[in-house]
Amino acid sequence: MQTSATAEQEAPSARQQAVLDAVLGLMVADGDQLTMDAVARRASCSKETLYKWFGDRDGLLTATVRWQASRVHAGYDAAQVLDGATLRERLQDFAVTWLEVISGPTSVALNRIAIAHAGSHKSNLGGIVLANGRFAIGERVKPVLEAGRAAGLLAFADSEAAFRTFFGLVGRDIQIRLLLGEALDLDADEIRRDAGRAVDQFLALYGQAKP
Amino acid sequence: MQTSATAEQEAPSARQQAVLDAVLGLMVADGDQLTMDAVARRASCSKETLYKWFGDRDGLLTATVRWQASRVHAGYDAAQVLDGATLRERLQDFAVTWLEVISGPTSVALNRIAIAHAGSHKSNLGGIVLANGRFAIGERVKPVLEAGRAAGLLAFADSEAAFRTFFGLVGRDIQIRLLLGEALDLDADEIRRDAGRAVDQFLALYGQAKP
DNA sequence: AGCGTACCGTACCGTACGGTACGCTCAGTA
DNA sequence: TACTGAGCGTACCGTACGGTACGGTACGCT
Question: How confident is the model at residue A12 (pLDDT cuts 50, 70, 90)?
């Protein structure tokens, strides 16, 4: 039996990671040049090895998406008691991180691939990207919101709905514009300002003065 | 000289429109079955005619995007003096329309194609989609916002920034989730509720009691 | 009637790409 | 040294698809 890094959920070996990085590199460099030949050439490996490791093209893409996803997750530090400044800071961090992710070339390229794939329903990259992007951050933000509510700093009924508003205030039209090819490069300063504005707006909508 | 519906900006003939509708139908039905053969078959026309009319595959796609765009635009009724109820109503209309558009299968399919295309930079469908989607609605909403400000109902410095916030509050995570393949069908009721919530939030952020 | 034009249907061509086969090298092992 | 297996490079196969060519038909126009 060969070592498929797709069917089973084994972590890819170092060599395999290098291959997946090559795939990411190609995606970023030129989205539609993403052929098995090109991958093999760039990764200096043989196509046969690619097929042995990843099964087929879809398996390679899936493994790549998972590999990238595995790098994005940071620690889930559970929030304890919050004061207003800490809450603001935590939200600001999330907003900055999210804006950095979605405006990064890797994320743009990966989302393009996954979206193109979502049209033809085989092996849903879209689901994986959603699970590790939009939903993963939701699961990380919602506890913070709930801690904020527990501390009397926020008021909302449904944390999912509150998070979605936060998401909208942070992302606005940025992701769709990038995906559709607009240049639009955000520097760190602009991201910080954007994140700050989003947090201010969110707190204006959901915050309440501590009684 | 042949009648190219691409190079020049002539409106497509009725027959050509039928062809473009066939393309849209194929896009919606099965995104990656979008081959020139399939289009010709579905439109009951010959491939040669397709090439004569649209130049090449890209030209056909471009014409299709333009054709769909030409159908979305509604009238630009200039806003005069606004009272609070009218402003809210206008914003609600925009929000409902926008949500209907982005959640429609045609929009999803078209955006998928355009986004996939945006990876490989030839003939930017992405630009056309942006111009006729995100930016077109921006140009329609901003005058309303400015009229609202003129009437003392809204307060903001930058109408573009205010619009982007509105855009984020309305769209939130819906478009990206749909593009990535989540099922997520919104019925008319949910859209109306969503739009209402977004407008409430927007007014909470930017509204001001009339002095 | 004769001719041109527009178009349909279909056959065809070239190429790019997913997937496979095979020979070669080289490290590890006994 | 001989054997094994992993993996590189390359050649190869089949097919799908973009694009072209061509015969046939319907409909003007003169």
Answer: confident
Residues A136 and A155 reside in one and the same domain: yes
Nucleotide nearest to B43 (CA to C1'): C8
Which residues 18-77 of B interface with strand D at a CB distance below 7 A? 32-37, 46-48, 51, 56-58
Kindly report the nearest CA distance between residue A85 and chain B, in angstroms.
Answer: 21
Interchain CB contacts (distance < 8 Å): A and B: 131
Q: Does A51 share its domain with A86?
A: no
Last residue of a domain, one of B71, B90, B111: B71
**Do residue A97 and residue A197 come from a single domain?**
yes
The answer to whether A109 contacts chain B (CB < 8 Å) is yes
Q: How far is A55 from chain B (nearest CA, A)?
A: 21
As a whole number, mean pLDDT of residues B158-172 equals 98
Residue A48: Cβ within 10 Å count: 9
Q: Which long-range contacts (CB under 8 A, 24 or more apart) does A195-200 make?
A: A195/A92, A195/A95, A195/A96, A195/A99, A195/A170, A196/A92, A196/A95, A198/A95, A198/A166, A198/A169, A198/A170, A199/A88, A199/A91, A199/A92, A199/A95
